[in-house]
Amino acid sequence: MWAGERGGPGSPHGFQLLLRCKTATLPSQSLGQALSQQWRDGTGRGERVKKGILERLNSGEVVIGDGSFVFTLEKRGYVKAGLWTPEAAVEYPEAVRQLHMEYLRAGSNVMQTFTFFAGKDNLESKWKDVNEAACDLAREVAEKGDALVAGGISQTSLYQSQKNKLEIKEIFQQQLEVFTRKNVDFLIAEYFEYCEEAVWAVEVLKESGKPVAATMCIGPEGDMHNLTPGECAVRLVKAGASIVGVNCRFGPEISLATVKLMKEGLEASGLKAYLMVQTLGFHTPDCGKGGFVDLPQYPFGLEPRLATRWDIQKYAREAYNLGVRYIGGCCGFEPYHIRAIAEELAPERGFLPDASEKHGSWGSGLSMHTKPWIRARAQKEYWKNLLPASGRPYFPSLSKPDA
């Protein structure tokens, strides 16, 4: 769906199952197993030919992206903090494959190549091997379910110092050549602080003839050249992006506020595009214009800010109500957060993910607990209204950004 339009539910069969699930006549475990098996044997969706990203969005489907890679793999011991480059695709392919699998099982429709900061400017001679390996891993996992492969590029390390358009475009072109050869399904230009560089990226990616999404790592104050979110969206669409939005740098509330401004900018200009949001898995109400990278806790002390699964269900619903149909996460956004999106939007999608087999809706599994006060928590209202404590009595709830 275009920005602001409403769409229908998923497959009728899956939605009927879901309604039965919600009235407690069918457990979520059975629903997830049934629909997963239907995809594998080809009976649930009529055919096994996957629809493209624009086909899905145009039909009103909710597309669920993936979540954190560099942050999650750093915690697991496979990525080094600093440049956050993705050599793990070559050095530890099993770790990257496993994380892709976790997102797929949690409900992701898109396996994005692990190619963040993977241009020649950051990886030098290793860039080609890393991009090729990342494409192969994403495709391998995507073929295990109803997922597409997105080739991803991000801002370069050259823009702020040189702004050499030809050199920067060449870096994007090199990655695009790999993505084209590996036949990714669509392309994403993500994590851009400057709209100008993002436009250059879109211009290069459009040469492939494949659909292009573009997301900026900005908040409501706009990009680092003080372009508003609305103006950024307009320029990206005019450059050729079919999907626009934000990713990273800010938490759910700020990310959605920024997408709303993008939507308003597009509407005011008479332009149409699908909306996309991939927020942090952290709460960042005290961020400045630069986002969470300016907080004193970045990057090793952010855990107290982590969003709960219930926070993410709220985020998913608010994103959907805003008209966003491509919803995912970025740094700090774990597989269980992706599952929360899939569970919240199951009525619209018509099915639950495989990972819901082991997760009772709104804590329903607690109804079997031996302690009555824990059994009392097996209800939506309890978790929806909970105010989580940090367990740190002498710590501040907010902090002052360093920049």
Automatic annotation (TrEMBL):
The keyword Nucleotidyltransferase does not apply. Involved in the regulation of homocysteine metabolism. Gene3D superfamilies: Homocysteine-binding-like domain (3.20.20.330). Residues 51-345 form the Hcy-binding domain. Pfam families: S-methyl_trans. This is S-methylmethionine--homocysteine S-methyltransferase BHMT2-like. GO terms for molecular function: S-methylmethionine-homocysteine S-methyltransferase activity; zinc ion binding.
